[in-house]
From TrEMBL:
Pfam families: HTH_30. It comes from the Bacteria. This is Helix-turn-helix domain-containing protein. Residues 447-502 form the PucR C-terminal helix-turn-helix domain.
Length: 521
């Protein structure tokens, strides 16, 4: 493992007069200890032992170099490209060199232990425990959804421990997660790519953390809590090195960031994208959850808030859903949490599960669309669209509702999708088009009268009451409507066609007047 002067300063045992360290704490490039000789070419990887007069002669050097200098004169200024640790000239250089070599060996041995654990696929906790003697503060790793993967800390009385065994694989308490959603300091840490310090404002102690990324995706965070000793500058490079080892371990062991079977999300995405899926593979994956292809399912699409997307607590919400809705699996799909519920496994009815869901939605200020039940997992894509359309439509027409059942919006869905078509005339029967043109030419409202008549199930009494019209006047208009349109209102299909077209035309008017619409036009 390569070191730097910040680590050297914190871990050598000999006294230091003063140090001037200008390099980044994260820049580790020192590999060996050497003694200065004027005729010897110095490398950036060298930590060089040097006398004060020799160092003074090098003040014009432009190389980025690191020195242990014997002697100190506060009147002398040195360039900022040098890292210098000053010790008293009385020290025996051999003892200093031996001490420095011991420090290099200390971290070399730590690296070897970590690599040995990595090679044998040891549990992640063992990597943390191997690091405790250097960090001397509690260490934990959380998923991006704030679930604790492991923790480790120095053994002490139980009441003095920061963590307990019950914390393993548990999420942060909901109240802490809710507080983090509105904590701007925490939100800003999500994109951090280097070890970063989080203030003591929320928990009462500072936290040093580093985000673990795989393929540039933030999947976990290693945190060190400042509860046993103050942080050192050298903690930053050590944390970053440990994080790099943990990243390899997570990737090498293919550790899931959730509790779903391997390839489950891949297969679901293939179905949603209408790709062919190997049925034997699908059966094998579903069996992990004790599911069968022909079980009874329904889908839920839960709208993700902007805060949840920013701080990556989607998996936390998913975990809460899975814990409270038996036989369910929660995944993230774009702007939704996608919940798949198996009624055979859960042993509950759709309505009983939805009553639980509504409570969770209210608590989290969330909204959801719910599909109808279906009995073939391979048809998942169609029912996912049902759930998505239900929430899109419901959010517009019923803003105060938390849970939108598809069956309440199925007809509206058909009408809205048709209303998004550019040519509404192509959907109209010829007789209705003739009637509309007659109205435009003669300033009549026969089409409106026909619509009210159909909506009242061809009841003359209800229609004239609705239109505030005399019976004789209405019957005359009805006679003219039938003469002009030549529509057979005794035919149920004709009536249904006309009713649907009238609804489409009404929605089209709203769209053109600027009303929000859930589907692209």
């Amino acid at each position: 493992m390569k070191l730097n002067t910040h680590i050297i300063k914190d871990y050598v045992s000999f006294p230091i007069i003063i140090s001037f360290l200008n390099s980044s704490p994260l820049d580790c490039r020192l590999e060996r200890v050497t003694v200065y000789r004027q005729d010897k070419v110095r490398q950036s990887s060298d930590l060089t032992l040097i006398k004060l007069d020799e160092l003074t002669a090098l003040r014009n050097s432009e190389q980025e170099e690191a020195y242990i200098c014997f002697g100190y004169d506060e009147s002398i200024e040195f360039p900022k490209n040098m890292d210098i640790i000053f010790v008293t000239p009385e020290f025996n250089p051999l003892e200093i060199m031996e001490n420095l070599q011991d420090t290099f060996n200390l971290f070399s041995n730590w690296e070897k232990k970590l690599l040995k654990l990595l090679n044998k696929n040891a549990p992640l906790k063992e990597l943390g425990e191997c690091t405790l003697p250097f960090i001397n503060n509690p260490i934990a790793v959380y998923t991006s959804g704030l679930r604790n993967i492991f923790f480790c800390e120095r053994k002490k009385d139980k009441n003095l421990m920061l963590y307990s065994e019950e914390d393993t694989n548990k999420y942060l308490p909901p109240e802490e997660i809710d507080e983090l959603k509105f904590n701007q300091e925490f939100i800003s840490t999500i994109d951090a790519t280097e070890p970063t310090l989080f203030s003591a404002e929320m928990w009462g102690y500072r936290i040093l953390f580093h985000n673990i990324r795989i393929y540039d995706i933030y999947i976990a965070r290693i945190v060190i809590s400042e509860t046993e000793r103050p942080f050192k500058v050298s903690d930053l490079p050590l944390l970053k090195f440990l994080s790099s080892i943990l990243e390899i371990a997570i990737l090498k062991q293919d550790l899931p960031t959730n509790d779903h079977p391997q390839d489950f999300e891949t297969v679901v995405n293939q179905i949603l994208d209408k790709e062919s899926v190997d049925e034997s593979k699908l059966k094998r994956i579903l069996q992990y959850e004790n599911w069968n292809i022909d079980d009874c399912y329904f889908c839920v699409a839960i709208e993700i808030s902007s805060y949840d997307q920013v701080i990556h607590t989607v998996s936390t919400i998913g975990s809460i859903l899975e814990a409270n809705i038996p036989g369910s699996v929660a995944l993230q799909q774009k702007d939704y949490i996608f919940l798949i519920a198996n009624l055979n496994v859960g042993g509950k009815t759709r309505e009983s599960l939805l009553s639980v869901l509504v409570y969770i939605l209210r608590e989290g200020l969330l909204k959801a669309g719910v599909s109808e039940e279906f009995n073939n997992f391979k048809n998942l894509g169609e029912y996912y669209l049902q759930a998505c359309d239900a929430i899109r439509i419901g959010s517009i027409y019923d803003e105060t509702v938390w849970c939108y059942r598809y069956e309440q919006y199925a007809l509206k869905r058909l009408i809205l999708r048709a209303a998004a078509e550019s040519n509404v005339e192509a959907l109209c029967p010829q007789g209705l088009l003739r009637l509309i043109k007659y109205d435009e030419k003669h300033k009549r409202e026969y089409a409106k009268t026909l619509k009210i008549y159909l909506q009242n199930n061809l009841s003359v009494v209800k229609t004239i009451r609705h239109l505030y019209m005399q019976r004789a006047t209405f019957l005359y208009q009805l006679k003219r409507i039938l003469e002009i349109s030549a529509l057979n209102l005794d035919n149920p299909k004709v009536k249904l066609h006309l009713l649907i077209v009238f609804e489409i035309m009404e929605e089209r008017k709203l769209i053109l007047s600027g009303k929000e619409h859930p589907f692209e036009i």
